[in-house]
Amino acid sequence: METKVIIAGGGLAGSEAAWQLAERGVPVALYEMRPQHPTPAHKSDRLAELVCSNSLKSNTPGAASWLLKEELRRAGSFLLRVAGECSVPGGSALTVDRDQFSSAATRAIEGHPLIELRREEIRKIVQDGPMLMASGPLTSDALAGSLQRLTGSESLAFYDSISPIVDAETLNMERIFRASRYGKGGEDYLNCPMDENEYRAFYEALMGAEDVEAHEFEDRKYFEACLPIEELARRGYDTLRFGPMRPVGLLDPSTGRRPHALVQLRSENLRFSSYNLVGFQNHLKFPEQKRILRMIPGLENAEFVRMGQIHRNTYINAPKVLEPDLSLRCAPQVSIAGQLSGVEGYVECIATGLLAGVALAHRIQQKPFAPPPRTTALGSLVHYITHADPDHYQPANIAFDLLPSVEGLPRHVARDRRARRESQCQRALSDLASWLGELPLAFPPEATGEAHSPYDTTALAGKTTD
């Protein structure tokens, strides 16, 4: 009998893992509990739904997020290919039409002959065969309880936040201008400038706003990179102006000067029918959100397609329980991927899904598997979640701080931050190519196709240091 891998969760990690397994000849049963069991964050029954922003972050060569995406492209990532096909203008970021993206991913998964999509809840961990848990931040209580009993560790939880979306037809374009910061990527963002008086009034209203009351069982542990705007405001009068409302790199054409503060809107789709308030995730009551957000210039009569909200995010203490191949130490037949494994961000979830799927395929087909080199973004991400301090563990986005530095660089390169990062990128892509070539199970043909990188990865002088 062929071994069939059970995957719990049809989000980004689960969908990517299912595809990687199936492409290597391993049958998959992919469980997705929606629509029978909806969640507070999802709006549809489609796979790989993006529940927060529609941005997969920077596509600028040399950025850490770009490096992770570039490595995934070269490794044959299913969802990165879908994202490229469904992209919308987003300045220097890879942004997608969220409906097209999830619809395309769902059609592909449903059409794959080795993937069986089961629209039902899986309530416990399977013990008699390989299983991948990629059920995400809203893992059901039953399945989370099963994981807790298996690992013997406490499940950690904090609360993640979602930005509002506004109807484009209700915007006052006389108060708004189009531009990207420093002119990068065209005029892809709508910008709502504020003078000092407007900012002060907005800040004071935000400080006095009524937020949603926490339940007794809630212990909110916000992720530092995705704080609600009211939390940021409580940290100081100018915190927002150095955060989501920073005006740098933009000039208001009506004054010729940089605004005192600014709110950016990013298109949600190719029709430009709705816009996301960038970085404006919040936990305010809906009437309060409408009242305060309509104080933003250009949003005086705005109608909201979606209001900001908070949703639960559950993840394991990965350094305590996970091996570098993303399997559980106490139960090697069970692997963990996505936000449940302790990564934060769309691309990071896709990355762990790809790696978990590839590792499982190698194990099932009795082929040796080694994680990506520590010098790559993929390898550094896995190294962090499996080697961080378990007593102070928090989810991580990809960042150059996770990658080891390059030794032996010329002094002028070592002293230049951009040059140092380019060296890390160059080395990462070179080492990734070697890793891909060494894996017993071949990657799909497109994995070795034309490069997307501006760097020459054939050789790089320098040694690795942790």
Concise structural overview:
By secondary structure, this protein is α+β, with helices and mostly antiparallel strands. It is 30% helix and 16% strand. The chain has 2 domains: 5-155 and 316-465, FAD/NAD(P)-binding domain (3-Layer(bba) Sandwich), CATH 3.50.50.60; 161-312, Elongation Factor Tu (Ef-tu), domain 3, CATH 2.40.30.260.
Explain what you see.
The chain has 466 residues and is α+β, with helices and mostly antiparallel strands. The chain has two domains: 301 residues, FAD/NAD(P)-binding domain (3-Layer(bba) Sandwich), CATH 3.50.50.60; 152 residues, Elongation Factor Tu (Ef-tu), domain 3. Helix content is 30%, strand content 16%. The strands form five sheets. It has a six-stranded antiparallel β-sheet with strand order 10-11-12-13-9-14. Helix 1 links the parallel strand 1 and strand 2. The radius of gyration is 22 Å and the shape is globular.
Query: What structural class do you assign from the helix and strand content?
Result: alpha+beta
CATH superfamily of the largest domain: FAD/NAD(P)-binding domain
User: Total domains, how many?
Assistant: 2
Question: What is the number of strand segments?
Answer: 18
**CATH topology tier name of the largest domain:** FAD/NAD(P)-binding domain
**What is the helix content?**
25-40%
Order of neighbouring strands in the sheet with most strands: 10-11-12-13-9-14
Low-confidence stretches: 445-466
The largest sheet, given as strand count, sense and whether it forms a barrel, is:
6 strands, antiparallel
Mean pLDDT: 87
Q: Whole-number radius of gyration?
A: 22 Å
